[in-house]
């Protein structure tokens, strides 16, 4: 068995890459879960917006567990994968993988959380609209 088969890897498309900074930290020096969720929501919105060809809104976030803390200086990589597109809604899996600060080996990247985001296409008045069937 190949050693690499046992190593988990991100699934989906890299949608957002940024660095966790001091102003994103909580009182204990770890990156705030709220900040991380906001970045995940932004990545889901970008993926949904491409599909919807316009404005979208988050209507639900399902099953999020935080697996480990994120330290200041970590490279935060957010991946999105479209699971399903309905008439007006899109289900998007969002994964967050980090490379710890001062780590040079890209194999040290590890998942810190994931969640299923349900997004809907909305029109200029904020009303739900259909997702275009043609891209």
UniProtKB/TrEMBL annotation:
InterPro entries: Cytosol_ACT, HOTDOG_ACOT, HotDog_dom_sf, Thioestr_dom. PROSITE patterns: HOTDOG_ACOT. GO terms for molecular function: long-chain fatty acyl-CoA hydrolase activity. Residues 10-125 form the HotDog ACOT-type domain. One of its GO terms (cellular component) is cytosol. The keyword ATP-binding does not apply. Pfam families: 4HBT. SUPFAM superfamilies: Thioesterase/thiol ester dehydrase-isomerase (SSF54637). GO terms for biological process: acyl-CoA metabolic process; fatty acid catabolic process. Keywords: Hydrolase. The keyword Translocase does not apply. Belongs to the acyl coenzyme A hydrolase family. This is Acyl-CoA thioesterase YciA. It comes from Allopseudospirillum japonicum.
């Amino acid at each position: 068995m190949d050693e690499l088969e046992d190593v988990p890897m991100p699934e989906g498309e890299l949608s957002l890459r940024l660095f966790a900074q001091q102003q994103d930290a909580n009182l204990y020096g770890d990156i705030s879960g709220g900040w991380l969720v906001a970045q995940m929501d932004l990545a889901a919105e970008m993926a949904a917006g491409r599909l919807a060809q316009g404005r979208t809104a988050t209507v639900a976030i399902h099953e999020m567990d935080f697996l480990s803390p994120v330290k200041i200086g970590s490279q935060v990589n957010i991946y999105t994968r479209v699971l399903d597109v309905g008439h007006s809604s899109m289900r998007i899996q969002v994964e967050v993988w980090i490379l710890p600060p001062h780590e040079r080996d890209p194999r040290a990247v590890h998942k810190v959380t994931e969640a299923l985001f349900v997004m809907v296409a909305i029109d200029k008045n904020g009303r739900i609209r259909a997702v275009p069937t043609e891209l």
